[in-house]
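Encode chain A's predicted structure.
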Amino acid sequence: MPTRRLALASVLAMMAAPAIGSTPSPFLAAIRRARLADAANRQAGADSLAVFGPSGLRPAYWRAYRFGVLAERYSARRALHALTPATADEASALVAYHAERASLTEDPEAARAARRRLRKVFARPGAAPAPPLPAILRPPAPS
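Encoded structure for chain A:
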């Protein structure tokens, strides 16, 4: 009988694998993998709260499962951050991914970290020009 971790890994692998007949860029595949890993992590957190409550102890099997989900999310983000967007479509997709992450958290620190990450990525040699930032990623106006 497959474990939850094995089932989650196989679902993520099937969803992240490119469709037969089409070959998306590795950059777009990395963004898709990172989005799926982020969604799996959010769902695991929601399930954890629903099953064990906010202050309930988590059993060892659940902690191991959560560490597996976190490891996949970390690996997916590292793979994405290792790539440099070479086309305008890839650059726009990367900005959209970071804007989506910042809007889900609604934390100004997440938007600041996204701006810092994007600045570093678009400063690399061979990177496509940076598209305009969406409103969620723009720095706050000085007061």
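The helical segments are 4-16, 26-52, 60-81, 88-105, 108-122.
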